[in-house]
């Protein structure tokens, strides 16, 4: 019989792989709490319209990558391809759009996209995500960026990672800039790729993000948004840069960062690295001031970012920063009569916060071999003589030393 394997684009997280992913999530959870973010959890699947409205019917995610199916009740549901749209839906459906704003939200969990698997990218992948919903001020943009930089620092992977920032301007800025891009790219239309010709009709800003070599040569001469910024939009972006400097977050301007949907505005940013090959973005986000309205709520300014946990984990692995597995204490009863006392000691250790294990079977030699296999830092040996004397033999498996310790003192010695 052929053994089953994980579905293509998925993987099992075991050992070091799981510890790295867990470390990423816990670090982000801890750091975001310092900034006042509270954790939310939303369903793993939603009404398909949540994502078709939130991501745009013509986006690659909606048209090519979503896991969408009809349930037994005839409703179209989709496994979430990202977190933000579901969080905006939750804000509206739980009646939170008018109370206690802004809401500062932290989120982590699996996402699903049917795309070509590659290094650090899977069809079931995991994200961490923070959002500030209900704040229109540029300080909110700077603070979410600062939180992201803080997460990368705490993970020890900020070296070699660069923050790139751009402004998308306000509605008037984007309208004027769009006209300038249409004029420029129309003059080069015959040299554009087929995809970029389609984008020219629908969303010319997306051409700036083209990976086609021919397009990139044309994009190099395209106008930037700066001459088309309104005074308000320019002042907004200037405040973001000023706040980033105060937060101590290094950055560089990248006028080619774009977003594909009209409700994105003002700040757009990415943390990029050259340590992951061509796919170098590890965290990205920006301001979106119309998505809550798409979910049926009132106009609500929002800003946030998402980061792929698999890519952050790869950076941990590349930097030799895989968290070590906890080293347990092995409790070893010698003889059937010692098992009860050994179990009492085992639970006393666990109550004291000590990771402790007991082998289910085997003589002293085999139990000691298991203690070494699991990387135990110490072994506690209990036989009839030790029980009669009210002690355990504490063997330091690193130093190779051994001493008798009163049973009541053992948890305190090892905690």
From TrEMBL:
Residues 8-333 form the Aminoacyl-transfer RNA synthetases class-II family profile domain. Keywords: Aminoacyl-tRNA synthetase, ATP-binding, Cytoplasm, Ligase, Nucleotide-binding, Protein biosynthesis. The keyword Membrane does not apply. It comes from the Bacteria. Its main location: cytoplasm. The keyword Magnesium does not apply. PROSITE patterns: AA_TRNA_LIGASE_II. GO terms for molecular function: histidine-tRNA ligase activity. It catalyses: tRNA(His) + L-histidine + ATP = L-histidyl-tRNA(His) + AMP + diphosphate + H(+). Belongs to the class-II aminoacyl-tRNA synthetase family. Homodimer. This is Histidine--tRNA ligase. The lineage of its organism: Bacteria, Pseudomonadati, Pseudomonadota, Alphaproteobacteria, Acetobacterales.
């Amino acid at each position: 019989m052929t053994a089953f394997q994980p579905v293509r684009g998925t993987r099992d997280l075991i050992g070091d792989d799981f510890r790295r992913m867990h470390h990423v999530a816990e670090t982000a959870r801890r750091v975001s709490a310092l900034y006042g973010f509270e954790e939310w959890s939303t369903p793993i699947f939603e009404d398909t319209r949540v994502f078709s409205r939130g991501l745009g019917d013509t986006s690659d995610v909606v048209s090519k990558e979503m896991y969408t199916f009809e349930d037994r009740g005839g409703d179209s549901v989709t496994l979430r391809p990202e977190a933000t749209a579901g969080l905006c839906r939750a804000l509206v459906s739980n009646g939170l759009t008018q109370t206690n704003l802004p809401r500062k939200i932290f989120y982590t969990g699996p996402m699903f996209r049917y795309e070509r698997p590659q290094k650090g990218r899977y069809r079931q992948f995991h994200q961490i995500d923070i959002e500030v919903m209900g704040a229109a001020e540029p300080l909110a943009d700077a603070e979410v960026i600062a939180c992201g930089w803080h997460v990368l620092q705490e993970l020890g992977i900020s070296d070699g990672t660069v923050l790139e920032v751009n402004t998308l301007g306000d509605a008037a800025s984007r309208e004027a800039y769009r006209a300038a891009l249409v004029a420029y790219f129309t003059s080069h239309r015959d040299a554009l790729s087929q995809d970029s010709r389609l984008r020219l009709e629908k969303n010319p800003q997306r051409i700036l993000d083209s990976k086609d070599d021919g397009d990139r040569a044309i994009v190099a001469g395209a106008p930037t948004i700066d001459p088309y910024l309104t005074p308000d939009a320019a002042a907004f972006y200037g405040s973001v840069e000023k706040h980033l400097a105060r937060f101590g977050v290094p950055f560089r301007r990248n006028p080619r960062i774009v977003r594909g949907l009209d409700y994105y505005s003002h700040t757009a940013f990415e943390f990029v690295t050259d340590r992951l090959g061509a796919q170098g973005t590890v965290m990205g986000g920006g301001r979106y001031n119309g998505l809550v309205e798409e979910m049926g709520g009132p106009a609500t300014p929002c800003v946030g970012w998402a980061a792929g946990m698999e890519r952050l984990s790869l950076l941990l692995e590349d930097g030799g920063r895989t968290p070590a597995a906890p080293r347990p204490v092995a409790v070893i009863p010698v003889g059937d009569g010692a098992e009860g006392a050994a179990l009492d000691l085992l639970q006393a250790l666990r109550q004291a916060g000590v990771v402790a294990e007991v082998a289910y079977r085997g003589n002293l030699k085999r139990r000691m071999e298991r203690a070494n296999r699991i990387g135990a830092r110490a072994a506690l040996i209990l036989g009839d003589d030790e029980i009669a004397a009210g002690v355990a033999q504490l063997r330091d498996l690193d130093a190779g030393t051994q001493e008798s310790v009163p049973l009541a003192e053992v948890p305190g010695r090892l905690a």
